[in-house]
Design goal:
Elements: H1 2-16, E1 24-34, E2 36-37, E3 49-64, E4 69-84, E5 95-112, E6 115-133, E7 142-145, E8 158-171, E9 175-186, E10 197-210, H2 218-235
Antiparallel strand pairs: 1-3, 1-10, 2-10, 3-4, 4-5, 5-6, 6-7, 6-8, 8-9, 9-10
Length: about 240
């Protein structure tokens, strides 16, 4: 029984002394590709689909929880969209679609030395958008602002989905550089019945600086101080 008690104490001490993953604030300014998936029509449109390159800017906050795990809330402004070439079976003419969007992913990140994998939900809000068509002799071209609502012919303000991927961390003395590869899987039909989903691969380069305090690490600091004092009392029982 005594041995079991000592084993329990040892395990508790080991757990209490586990260091949290470091906390970083990452800044992102990126030029990234996005694309639209057309659901049941996607295969038919495959040869006519082109991606859209747009600005991505925002911040990512990695809050360390344990030595191997951290929680990463992020906020980005992203210019998303896609393009269909002329004579495509959906619109019949070259069509460009662009959304200006706010993305809020919350990622669970597992650290494996300098490599990490992460996944989590994302909520998006479409601020505005634009639809542009090119004249091809049979159909006139034009530009129009997107109308948002819930009826067919309008677009959804809100989008939601999952993001998952992996990355590599280049560590420096007081900062780091991240290479982040991720897939965005939109689950909301932003075309309100038109079968349009934001689904695309994304690559980010993030430059970050260590955060002075970890909001999720305060309890661990108290636990560490407790176990250090406990160890000292065992080493000096007469004090």
């Amino acid at each position: 029984m005594k041995k079991q008690f000592l084993l329990l104490i040892t395990m508790a001490a080991f757990t209490g002394k586990t260091l949290a993953q470091e906390t970083f604030m990452d800044v992102v300014i990126n030029y990234t590709p996005t694309s639209i998936n057309y659901g049941d029509n996607n295969k038919e449109l495959k040869d006519f689909k082109k991606g859209y390159w747009g600005l991505q800017a925002g911040a990512s906050f990695q809050a360390g929880i344990t030595e191997y795990f951290s929680l990463v809330p992020e906020l980005y402004f992203v210019m998303k969209g896609g393009r269909l070439e002329n004579n495509n079976p959906l619109t019949g003419q070259e069509t460009k679609i662009r959304f200006n969007t706010l993305d809020l992913p919350v990622m669970a990140r597992l650290h494996l030395c300098n490599l990490y994998i992460n996944a989590g939900p994302v909520i998006s809000y479409n601020i505005n958008g634009r639809l542009k068509t090119e004249s091809n002799g049979n159909l006139p071209g034009g530009k129009s602002k997107m109308e948002f609502g819930s009826e067919l012919g309008t677009y959804s303000r809100w989008d939601a989905g999952l993001q998952f991927g992996m990355g590599y961390e280049f560590k420096f003395k007081k900062s780091r550089l991240l290479l982040d590869l991720r897939y965005h899987y939109g689950m909301v039909d932003i075309g309100n019945g038109a079968d349009m989903y934001n689904r695309y691969f994304n690559m980010n380069i993030l430059l970050s600086k260590k955060w002075k305090t970890n909001p999720l690490g305060k309890k661990k600091s108290r636990d560490l101080a407790f176990w250090e004092a406990y160890d000292e009392s065992l080493a000096n029982p007469l004090r």
